[in-house]
Structures
1.
Amino acid sequence: MKTVFFNTVLIMMTIGFAGTPLCEEALPLPYAQVEWPTIHRDVHNSDFIPTTLGTFSANESLRHVRWILRDEEGPSVAMTAGALGVENGEAMFYVTTGKVRLPNLRAYRLSDGELIWTAAPANHPDYPGPDSIALTSGPVLADDGNIYITDSKYLFCYNASNEMDENGYRAPLWKKTLPQLMRFDETAGEWLPTDDPESGKVFARPFLSMFFTQCQAEYSYLGGITIDGQVFLFDRETGELYASADLSRPDPIDELEDDEPCDPEQYALLDNPMEYDFNGDGGDSLTFLGIWTTGVQPETDDPDLDYFMNPCQIGPYLKGNTFGGGSFITNTPGATADPNRPTVSRIFICGRQSQALKEYDLDKSTEDAFLYRVDFDAAADEGERLVVMNYEIANGSLQFNGRMPNGQNSATSPDISPDGKWIYIGDNNNYFYCFSAEDGQRKWVENIGPTFGSPTTVQKIEDDGLRYVYANGGDRLWVFGINPITGEIAIDPQSKKRIARPLDFRPYITSVLWRDDDPGYDADYINRNGNPYERGALAASLIYASHDKVYCVYSVGWKDPDMPEVMIIPTHSVILILDRMTLNSTTEPTEAIEAAYIDTGGTSEVSFMISSYEYMRGIMVYGSQSTSMSQYMERNGMLAEGMEDLYIKPYGGIQIVEPIMEGSSPIQHWSIYN
């Protein structure tokens, strides 16, 4: 899952288990019969999106159903969208949290938000569950009902049919020790390999995300990728390691820090969770993005109360996720079948340039980004099943290129065209690329500005013969019309210009969709330099496109003109539902707005999912980076007087909502309130 400062993800899907990942339909559930070859932040890994979502109108709004994980005495936050499934004919929502001493995998009934079962906590005497969750890797749900999660030691598999005790704790079907487990030897003062997860201070590199390969011989495998570029494939039925590769080769694995994993209680004692020593003189190891606190009063040294999650996960999370930098890999892979070899699945992963690839760089003074292609042949001999094509030499040249010059790292996950021919991706240097999936040669590149999150490709070819791709760049929605045969950006027959249009919805959002429920939103605020604050809107992480709609989310609030663009003071979120056909042709962006929702219940920066199994339900996850940023700014006297009462404090939790009919309310009053 790619996360940046403001990483609201809008995911619109039907509830169900996909047939494609495991090559079978284990349950008779509705899903789109399409071949979408990338998981698009769908941690269900279902490779699908509903074909159409129907009509939204001015009569539709959203009503609060229930909060979950929002206990004001100790709230939690989910770092990923979760997974949607069905148990005993009822729609379910599965989510993981990072809270210590609490069950990390939770299953809620979607109709009313009732907690049905959880994984056992780590101190369960008979079948202990995970003691932490890699923040960037949420639950992965297979179409046979199996749910996969990891902590810093184990890979777990759960199923709703397995044993559950009187407390609602469910035992795992199995758990397997993660590969390359390390133990800190106190005597030697170094990390050494171990096979015993319970031998003291033990740690395995956290998975950034998990995924399924495409089917080979009517079977698919469970994949995991670490922040350091290690790729592991497991037999999904047994959890046994089946294949592995290292994208960063031949770079040596960095030594683990001596204080990882840390003890949560000691961490809280050493670091005041609400303050940050910007100059580093006070020994505070937190970064200003690493506060991740609840804001609950009174503040204590109890990480259960003061933190949304296990504070020991903050370091790996920031290394692996924030800004799309820090680690070797920061994004979710995409997988597609090889068109010429029936036993081979292609896995596309975005990340940093290795030292080996830097040798081929024409400008060795810059840090390039890379699209990696890893071929998985399930029929190959052990040790030859995973091949990193970027390192394969053919006729003196790399067999797969994928280079983004001076890209620093990738800012997006790979988006694969439905025919598997083209890969769309953004780097960390404002550029958006189209690569050939065959050889990694660059087809075209466009400067679109900072790219916060992944693009999306429509599954069908339009009547004009084009396939449309949508991306966020510079807080604008970019519309690309692509020739599906050549991969080139098409020429508009009327304007004679390339169909690469940036559409800016921010002026409309900050005027028509600005909050009006508090007089403070009409006030004039002045920063420390005497300059007035501005209304700001930041495009969120993911755009989602069905056949008829485009969905996107913005974080909205106050912008200090003397601070970086990402340092907005969030007051609400805005969800836009756009008519895609109008969006493709209009010169005025607002003409495409079919519906808009103002979310005042928090800053929904992780996901907004709308399901349509038996009934409509929306799931919004709260309490992420921008609210922690504002908490930091408030605590350090960086907010204008009175503004601290307006921004959304990071109380975490997940809200379940449902649509209601409210007559013909004007668009600025379509809101989601507590």
2.
Amino acid sequence: MERAVTSDEMRSFDGYAINRLNIPSLLLMENAGKGVVQKMNEQFGDLSVKLVYILCGKGNNGGDGFVVARHLLIHGSKVEVILTCKPNELKGDPLTNFNILKSLLSKSSESTESRKSRESHKSRSGVVQFSSLKKMKMLQPPDIIVDALFGTGFKGELNGKYKSLVEWANELPAKRVSIDIPSGVNADNGVAEGVAFKADITVTMALKKIGLTLNQGRSYGGHLEVVDIGVPTDLPIVGKFQTYIIEQKDVQATLPVRSFNVHKHSVGKILVLAGSVGLTGAAAMVSESAMKVGAGAVVLGTPKSVYSILAKKLTEVMTEPLDSTDEGSLSQSSLPEIEKLLQWADMLVLGPGLSRNQETQQLIQHLVSTSTKPMLIDADGLNAIAENPSCLKKRKTKEVILTPHTGELSRIIKLSSEEIEKNRIEIARRVAKEFKVTLVLKGAPTVTATHEGKVFINSTGNPGMATAGSGDVLAGLIAGLWGQGMTSDEAAWCGVFLHGKAGDLAKVKYGEKSLLATDIKTFVPEAIRHVELGLH
């Protein structure tokens, strides 16, 4: 699995390389800058015919920019380094690389002091101190502009000259490249609180930054490339990092393989309690999705008020009519029959379409607190927990998967949806540890957190999947995998990946706007085939 890191973790990684492996920091900067140019060449072709602007700050990101400038000059590119600080403000490795660059420019008979003689820009190379946008706009428009302003240490909001410079850069008809992470984007959560550099490609060093997978960072980063900076990524310190990006090969290696003597009761007996008047679709989709992904037998327990509808709709899923409330939802009087069904089942799916009826919610709370079977809780099951979180903490079963979207989690932990979206990875990690559950926090991207503190970021899916019923399909996929013997954590992140993969395949056929939850369900077998055969 590929790890993703925070800015602090990346500093620890660099520190280990420098202090324990004795790799000079200057060499790391050299490898970083050289790697950026290699990726630019792969993306944009022959760089010798390109005019490139490089926006450089005074920190290490700016130092990387100076290395990029030098290697571009070696390639024959015309380069303008736009320095946002005074040269005497540079220190350490950035200063060293600036001086090397200045010497190279001097030897090519281009003085950094002779700006006035080339104000009309004759496509020569040099360094210009940023003073005003008016001066920048007098320059010849570049083919490529490189963002080397801040890097992973940035927090907050761009302002002043940096805001103006990035706004100007975003408006240029040029290809845009960011080094490590777009300036203006928080490397830990992907939030851009104001203006941020909009890159066509981001070349990040050694390990992916979490902020490139979340929030605005996901779109502002553009195409993502990772550069080897000459440090092994399996160092002991990396083992302490707890955030992973799920790739197809990870799912391929984890999906269950059936033995020749398998039978339906050995690959998952799942009881689903779902549905009520007006919410029969949720019950159907979760049940069918569990079977689509390979569950051996699924029994749907549903109110008598909607039983006939679902019995006609479902063929492979067995349906059981249960006592109803006057509103057509599950009644507490159905409990004895539910307990009989639980004796048969390996696990329980609780919640889709059960309604917010008070009696039904109390029934859900009772089942959460008393059932000893592994349990996936979704939708109205989560609403019941939000009304009485103690039922989850007092539960008898150790194995629980929660599958909330941001709004549902907000109600459970009494934190705004905005705050959860802003810090979805760390909040998911904290909640999973606090409640000792596997937590699937649905969204863009969906993340799976374990009670041990690990978080898995999904890499599949598209905006068209934000449609009613999509979450019901996901719950069924996770349950179906879990019932086949996978651990709760594995079933969760594999189910999320397959769900997104099916959505991506459905998008190819139907487009984003026309995508329905049933389309996602239909493409589940094709998604599994793609994963098992290694197709893309």
3.
Amino acid sequence: MRSALLLTLCLGAWSLVAQPAWLPLSREVERPYMKVLQGVGSEAHTAVRPYRRSEIEATIPADSLRMVSPLPLLDRWAGVRNGRKFRWGPLADATLGYSANEEDPMRHHAGAGFWTGLDAGERWSFHLDAQAWNTRYADYLDTLVRATQVTPGEGYAYGDGPAFGHYEFNGHASWDPGRFFNLAAGRGRHFIGEGHRSLMLSDEAGSYPFLRITTSVWKIRYMNLFARMSDIRGSGGRIGDFGAKFTSMHYLSWNVTNRLNIGLFEAIIWSDGDSVYPRGFDIHYLNPIILFRPVEFQIGSPDNALLGAAVSMKVWKHTLLYSQLMLDELLLSEVRSGNGWWGNKQSLQLGVVAQEAFGMPGMHVRAEWNFIRPFMYTHSDTRQNYAHFGQPLAHPFGSNMQEAILHVERDRGRWRHGLRTSMAWMGSDTEYSYGNNIFRPERDRPPQPNGALINHGYRVGMDRLVNVFHGEVRSGFLIDPSTGTRLEASYMFRQRTEDGADDGVTHFFRLGLVCHFRERHPEQEVRYVLP
């Protein structure tokens, strides 16, 4: 059966293809297309991001292309409507912030960079973007940066404060060897899922070197992703001292009908070893078809393997219901017992997103719930946890948590107004691990009086319950559709409560030029301190 599937995927491989350029991984840049891409009748595989420009152009009617920039020069560079083969443009952030109730309340986020893309014939495309920033964060993010040495999604934090310097860059080459295949190699990020969060692979962590093979045939899209991740603990920001780890991931997306999509996911992470036992990239995981778990058993591997499934259903005209289920370890007998066995590592996502909600043009509404059991994404060898560059590869809060999200946003021409809220309930570790710090080994569980580790009784929210509410009101005027750059004003309210501790309240005002070329995740909480 595997040979037959491989043969099917290879049929017609040298047929004529379209230009293989890709959009940036940004919800703000993608937003003008989502009404049609997620609508009934669309064949797009919207859970696999980033998206291809050629597929969007083939799906979106000519009169529904995104608006041009109010600055004609930006359109001339970016080639939004003029079909330029070479495109480029600036990336800029310049915002001032005011964090109330803090001793020195003034904050800033300033950055500059560029992006460029080239279509070389009908089979090749190239992309490069780079940006550097200097930032002084609100206190809750400043605490996070000092604890993890990383700015969320924007690279290593250099400096001792109060402001930090950081940079990020991405680049790739994309090649279509035939109608059904695309190969891309470079440095970047990926996202699997329909939600604001992903429990499979999110864009929470920084960029990484990758090789991606995408196969699209019939109603199926199959992605193989091979990547080199980094463990930055103890490096002091020295790139040569970053520890190496590798991952191999598969995602199969099947449009069963024009309303129903089913996805299957599998991933494995392994460390590079050490000077005594160097390992490198394990060629056993290069097979694009075979399941990882059987390979693991065959070679007797202690590597970290995860499995997942996703289902999405289009209801009404522009509404999508979606879900994800992830498994790290599972014993059905322990699940049925309900005793909270530490090794039952699962996570679940349920959500709904509506375009033109309530019949109102430009209205976007999302509601989402995420649930992650203790010890999910951890491993006995912390070098093989589900993380990269000091940040989780899935949810930013790691594990031992649940979260409810509500987003309501309205587009009115170039104006975009929105309200984003989230409420998270999280467990907090003490001297022992209760499964929330994915950088701690599982053997750090609390002991019994006889010295043996406690195996049962682990619930979401233990040992100490931490509640974090995050709400933000935004209003902005679109300047550059190619990068999602807006003149934007916002107010953020954050409240953190913990049993036995004083409440932490943040009022943060922000005004200026904001570039949404890459996702930022301000909903953060310190979960660990990296050495």
4.
Amino acid sequence: MTSVDNPPKQSDAMRAERDRFVALAFCWADFMVEVDRNRKIVFAVGATDPVLGIGANHLVGKQFLDLVAPTDRALATQLLLIAERQGRIENVTVRFSSERGLTSPLNFAGYCLSDLGGHFFLAFRMSATTSSNRSRAAGRPLRDLESGLIEGDFFVEVATDRIESLHRSGHEARVSLLAVSKLDELRERLAADEQENLMRTIGATLRASSVGGDSASVIGEGKFGLVHEAQVDIDKLEGQIRDFTREVDPLGKGVTTEAATVVVDDMDISEEDLANSLMYMFNQFRESKDGSFSLTSLCGRMSELLAEARETVHNFRRIVADSDFDIAFQPIIDAISGDIHHYEGLCRFRGEMGASSPYKYITFAEETGLIWQFDLAMAAKAIDWLAAGSTRKDYSVAVNVSGLSVGTFSYVNELHKLLRKNMWTRGRVLFEITESSRMSDLESADRFIQTLRNEGYTVCLDDFGAGAASFQYLSALDVDVVKLDGSAVRNAQRARKGEAFLSALTKLCHSLKVETIAEMIDNKRGLEFVRKCGVQYVQGYLFGKPSKRIEDFSPLPQQQLFAASKRRSTARRT
């Protein structure tokens, strides 16, 4: 071992204390370094060569932070600052740069001892990567590029793993949500490199307080979450962020912060229910607008929120397992002839859940990762209904598929099993993809769609025209039908150039051999408008609200609206 620049007049007792610390550290660590106040290594011992490619004696005199991987340097900087204030660092991982490239993550623990000149005594142990195999297998970036924090889509998985790990080791687990207000305004006042430093520092500060230094996430714009132990002071964490942002802000304003914390140990809950409940909470936080989801008011009831989510998850699973819901039908009608092309099958829950809008529970299922199970149950329900009697042989029913389900392997696999058992459903079951904005991998989504189409099933893309991304989906996804978003159709009726816009949209679809459906056609004026624009099919309250009795649409209400159109169509053909 080698040492330079020791603190002056170090006593024999102090040296013995350090030697004892080294001996104890080697019960746990592969190597250890002592770092002075200037972040220079003054002592090194252990198996540094196989890890870093350099002997311990050659580490002495080097700047410690220069050895840390660039992506983890801000984290290491924050960790040392925290150690100066709080005395110790533990349960953190960092990577180093070596001649062989980046090392694997190393477990990292240590102390800052004021009695020894404020030096840091840091121990490192080889560790398997903390990244989730499932996250890596998904083929998507694991980290937010700006902050270095875990991307929100992966946080539930990571948080659940960390919480369970803490429980197994007998430690308290806590989850905190942090809202940083006016962060976007601050960024606008900074140069590009200053913005990068801002986000890296915020990310490092959050990571440094999280379990393993790797359990913090960016959940949304200015919204963050972390899993941490009980001794972490979230108030101090907020203060660090506020202080730093004031320092870098040209106006000296910085940001404001708001946090809420839940003690997860208070909940007697399975790992799966914990994951679903956390997903619900995080999505509520992510989707909230300013003022609609106060963390201050939430703080006292976050455990209650998770408990409510757990109970609703349990009830929803039971409903899915027992198929305890009904199908309501709404016809899709030829805009010229008035003939019914098919029916959309819509869920209607029973019992207490039936008193609320189905949208509430479908949204809940999407927020908790249960939507694929429901979508599968809905498809099975429609198939059972079609198979129930010979009088239904002429009916075709479209079932909804969430964009989230499209990207879920279990759903895709189980759906194909169901369809292979019921090959007679070809041409009679259609699939309507809703929440298409949640499809993160359009290439995989298109493979799913083409597999269905090749097996003889029609696929419709819902909510088309509701956003600019619709054209990206139409370009990337080869579908049979698009359903024009009802609000887009209504807006087109009011806008000066609305008819020209909708007409151009339908012509684009026709040129791609994609049929069009206009939804929310609730009055005669709307029907006449979409006819002029060239839309082929219509759906809406003009022809009756969704009904569990499909016979309510035979004969079709408002059939007289199609008589003149039929005559004109016949005249043109003759």
